[in-house]
Specification:
The protein has 206 residues and is mainly α. It has one domain (2-200). It is 77% helix and 0% strand. The chain has eleven helices and no strands. Helix 2 (16-26) runs parallel beside helix 4 (52-75), helix 8 (105-111) runs parallel beside helix 10 (133-166) and helix 10 (133-166) packs antiparallel against helix 11. The longest helix is centred in the last third of the chain and has 34 residues, at 133-166. The radius of gyration is 18 Å and the shape is elongated. The two termini are 34 Å apart.
């Protein structure tokens, strides 16, 4: 509960420049699902705390630039990031299934963006396979451009609905709504993550 309230308070205090820096760092530094921050932007937009039409492009730009930096560093052989990526994806599996990854790299880049906890897979896999930069930027940007407005809409739409239904009785608080969204999203993300792992690495996740 305190974490949800902290996120809301922190975001509401940020300037648009601060929002850009937040999403620039969220993909690689901040140990918290960036999707939650995106939903929070929509929530704050519904309260009139910020302008969603300004915040959305800023968040999109931060995420895209962050992914491009990670992709470029891995493509150039950055040992630190490659080490992290190999621990996540299992080095032996990646080597053994390199043809599979190469054949499905476009799908991996695009769809991994929609699975909580798998945001690193797209830039890592594309960098390891040395995919053309233009191809990566196109697919990654398209996914992010779809993801950010969609999640902001969730935060905006359901805040209005839930609060309008029970606000008169004082049952719901801002942090309660946000906590519900976080729990639902993390549960869905966890199931999707397991599904992806079973698909890519069946012998590791029986």
């Amino acid at each position: 509960m305190e974490e949800a309230q902290t996120i809301i308070s922190s975001l509401s205090a940020l300037s648009y420049g601060g929002i850009f820096i937040l999403f620039l760092l969220a993909n690689a530094v901040i140990p918290f699902p960036e999707e939650v921050f995106i939903i929070a932007l929509g929530y704050l937009g519904s309260l009139g705390t910020l302008n969603m039409f300004i915040a959305a492009p800023i968040a999109i730009a931060g995420l895209i630039i962050s992914d491009i930096i990670i992709f470029t560093l891995i493509k150039r052989g950055n040992k630190f990031l490659m080490g992290i990526g190999k621990m996540i994806l299992y080095d032996d599996d990646f080597t053994a299934h390199s043809d599979f990854f190469r054949n499905h790299i476009r799908k991996i880049i695009f769809f991994s963006r929609f699975v909580a906890g798998f945001r690193f897979i797209g830039p890592f896999t594309a960098g390891m396979l040395k995919i053309k930069t233009k191809t990566f930027i196109l697919l990654d940007s398209l996914a992010i451009i779809i993801l950010v407005p969609s999640l902001m809409f969730v935060g905006n739409y359901f805040q209005n609905k839930f609060v309008s239904i029970v606000n008169t009785s004082g049952i719901i608080k801002h942090w309660m709504f946000f906590l519900i969204i976080i729990i639902v999203f993390l549960i869905l993300g966890r199931h999707l993550r397991r599904l992806v792992l079973k698909t890519f690495f069946p012998h590791k996740h029986k």
